[in-house]
Amino acid sequence: MRSAFLRLLLQEDLNFLLTNRIPRRWATGLVGRIAAAEHPLVARPALAAWRFFSDVDLSDAATTEFRSLRDGFVRRLRPGARAYDRDPATLASPCDAILGAHGRIEGDRVYQVKGFPYRLGELVPDPALVERFRDGWYLTLRLTAAMYHRFHAPADLTVEGVTYLSGDCWNVNPIALKRVEQLFCRNERAVIEASAGGRPLLLVPVAAILVASIRLGFLDVETVLREQGSARAACDARLGKGEEMGWFEHGSTILLFLPPAARLRDGLRLGDTIRAGQVLADW
After folding, report:
1. What is the pLDDT of residues 33-44, one digit of tens each?
2. What is the pLDDT of residue 13?
């Protein structure tokens, strides 16, 4: 029954209708309230449905007992569950993910999927920042609902600034990416500017339907939004490789941008399952 239901949901037209043609903000707010509820009459069925439909693997979780669905989403892992290579010349995946579109940035043109380009300047508000990554490299890292939802520093780095941009909450799965142009540029996102050994690095966590909630451990996002809106917040947060940066309150996507001097590792393939800490590129 479970496999038949999942096959039905993966039928492209139905999936797109169910996840994008409903009132997205309303659905996201509703799921957010359900996810936060700790009353057993709400939390237990929600957790049971999550485990059943998403086939979540909790073997590496610090605990399998959760007070709410949100606790399950933002669970921590057992110490040592993810290993980060300490070589400063390597750059690691910040999160568990499925690898999406990746490769060279063509000037400032990037692809969400084959045939659906967007401009880095439409994703990132600062033209000077765009120029740092012109002809560089990009990776699209999609987190599913079953995956570990926290993300980490891919190198020893300093976060120099964050711009939080409000927006829509389209689903970011491959079905939607093939149908909605410039989807990542439409959705709520945080543009995280960082440097690693003097080399620029850009992480853009993108929110999605049923998510619309990105949390950063080094910055009080809610206070910044209330006081500054979408203005850039300057930072001087130093994080070691593998140190936690933040989390999503459901599955979503992280876009990772590297300068031209970096090189993606050979053997990366569309659809690969990536683990946090896995080496993705070299300086």
Report:
1. 777 788 889 889
2. 45
Tokens of 216: 């950063």
Which residues are known to be catalytic? 96, 152, 252
In this structure, are residues 143 and 208 in contact, taking their beta carbons and an 8 Å threshold?
no
User: What spatial distance separates the first Cα and last Cα of the chain, rounded to whole Å?
Assistant: 48
Residue 148 has pLDDT above 90, yes or no: yes
- Give the pairing of strands 233-239 and 253-258: unpaired
CA angle (203 as vertex; 230, 195 as ends), nearest 5: 100
CA separation for the pair 209, 168 (Å, rounded): 8
Residues paired with 162 in a beta bridge = 192, 233
Task: Dump the DSSP string for 1-37.
Answer: -HHHHHHHHTSHHHHHHHHHSS-HHHHHHHHHHHHH-
Round to whole Å and give the CA distance between 13 and 205.
26
